[in-house]
């Protein structure tokens, strides 16, 4: 806890005290500059050190490559020396039968693992490339991978020497990687007579890789503690190497281990050089690899050079730590100098700061004398700040006084404005209600007059037709049986015309009995509305489907309910662009307890549907999306249903259609009665 309090204490000091904040402000530029220098130094050091390391290992690989070529050239020179020796030439001229046996005995004399003399007739045993060069009289040296039988043909001891146990795999590699040289021998007629075949086995060979390492990594060329390594691979297998089995203890050789998959993909499969950081058996090395090709140009192995990475990193980290210690010392010295140099400024600034904090919490304080010269900038600043505080105090008093007066005026004006607003809202509401009723009354009056005229005009010719039909039946007597079906059809159509005209007349009547709320079976009113809608939509491609399942009666104004039903059905027809299926369904309105409350009428169309934005506004007066519409139909319908305690609900999905549901109570209830019921509950 003590350490925590100490830390919090110093954090609070740095946040609040002027001297520490000034120390931070003066030290930050120095710290940023030094950190930038550190970053640049580290970047340059890392970049150039690593690039230099890669260039060095790439150069080491080039030296190893040339060293291998020199060793192969030396191998070829030994065979040429053998073929040009006195004994070889003597046997070649005097006793060729003994020449082959003699050559096979010279293996150790010329520091080779095998020497074989092939007659010209064995030319077919070599590849096409070898044959072409031998026939041209050219010596050649190349790498080659041979199986155990081929090795035994060259020297019976080679298969045993070539066998490598694979570490961590419990298997043995029996193939051998050899460096092979071919020397053609021609007779006096310039015809190929013999082929001198010799070389060395690279499996388990330590002399060759150690000689190359000594040539590549001379003394004192690597960082302290690092080791240089060279490896010959047959495919991805180390067959000759001085990479230790333990890089720390530096013992053994990692023969029989494999290269990483990343290097294998790039060097063996893609045939490209690889230079970079690689994990070599048990440690990270700065490494470079190049492919080894046989006489046909196929990649059969790799040549590797590299040295341990950690000593290089250790040297680099040591330099960074030394640089960091030096920078910290510089920062400490600069902080002490800044602190002591700015000490004379701390006290007056802290006094000014304390006065500012006191004023912020509401205390009436002043800076006064700072014990500085009269013309000192901080002393002038203190006097100006005191003067500003005096003026601010006076202005605050004036503002408080004015704010009290303004608050009283605002309260008076707000109260008056609120009263006027309520009065205006009430007038607007009454005006809108009167306007809606006036427009609806005018529309219904005109519609009633029109439908009444149409009904009377239809009834007159209908009566004439009925009278003539009855006269025909009377005159024909029994002969009417021949046209009985036709006469029955005429009577049926006349009855249908009478029903239509009766509905029109009833729809057109206003006042009197028709405007009273009486008991009705909802299905009869729905059937009447369907008769009118079907008659009015005969020219449209509209099919009306009815499912009348309601059983209860309801109290309603028959005329107004018929108006609402026709309005909703015609809206559905228009929503379907005068074509499609219109469904009308009635059913009993039952609550959760199973009690019958009344009847429900649902009008469903399969038209364009209503968007979510318009769904909130469709019952607003004068809102419509049709050019020829007035926007009063749904508003008036909602008012009619609300007057008898019913409800209208709508469900719609854009592009699929809409369903309007009318909920009619068994016992009509006025709006005022409903409000009283709600208040009572």
From TrEMBL:
What Enzyme Commission number does this protein have?
A: 2.7.13.3
**Where does the record place the Histidine kinase domain?**
453-668
Residue intervals passing through the bilayer: 20-44, 323-342
Q: Name one GO cellular component term.
A: plasma membrane
Coiled coil segments of this chain: 389-437
Superkingdom field: Bacteria
Keywords linked to the UniProt accession = Cell membrane, Coiled coil, Kinase, Membrane, Phosphoprotein, Transferase, Transmembrane, Transmembrane helix
Q: Which SMART domains match?
A: HATPase_c, HisKA
Q: How does it sit in the membrane?
A: Multi-pass membrane protein
Which Gene Ontology molecular-function terms are recorded?
Answer: phosphorelay sensor kinase activity
Per its record, the protein catalyses:
ATP + protein L-histidine = ADP + protein N-phospho-L-histidine
* Localisation per UniProt entry: Cell inner membrane; Cell membrane
Q: Where is the signal peptide?
A: none
All residue ranges annotated as the HAMP domain in the record: 343-397
Identify the InterPro entries for this entry.
HAMP_dom, HATPase_C_sf, HATPase_dom, His_kinase_dom, HisK_dim/P_dom, HisK_dim/P_sf, sCache_3, Sensor-like_sf
Q: What is this protein called?
A: histidine kinase
